[in-house]
Design brief:
binds flavin-adenine dinucleotide; FAD/NAD-bd_sf; elongated; FAD-binding domain-containing protein; about 80 residues
């Protein structure tokens, strides 16, 4: 089973990245399957190895953006 897009995880909305993430995941998965046409396990592992660090960076970026937006005291 493979999870893509919002089914895999949801980044914070201020990243504005949900649609791009879903499309990029589908595209990179298709490329991985094309490069391993007879071995879907190898394709999945290859894709996952590249995918997870990027997804973790997006989560961290969303958290950092949220902190910047929410933690700033309003100027008086
Ligand atoms: C209000 C709002 C604003 C957003 N703004 C942005 C933005 O500015 N930029 C951005 O990048 N992202 C934005 N997003 C996020 C973005 O829409 C999602 O991250 C993206 O659509 C995820 O794509 P997906 O294919 O994973 O899921 P979805 O687009 O949710 O597609 C899932 C599909 O599966 C179908 N489905 C569900 N259950 C079944 C079933 N049992 N059988 C068959 N089909 C089923 C659904 O009908 C749906 O068509 C926004 C989201 C919301 C709610």
């Amino acid at each position: 089973m493979l999870l893509l897009g919002d089914a895999a995880f949801v980044a914070r909305p201020h990243t504005g990245a949900g649609a791009g993430k879903a499309a990029a995941s589908a595209l990179t998965l298709a490329r991985a399957l094309q490069s391993h046409p007879t071995d879907t396990d190898a394709a999945r592992l290859h894709w996952e190895r590249d995918q997870l660090p990027a997804d973790r960076r997006l989560v961290r970026w969303g958290i950092a953006l949220g902190r910047r937006i929410m933690d700033v005291a309003p100027a008086l």
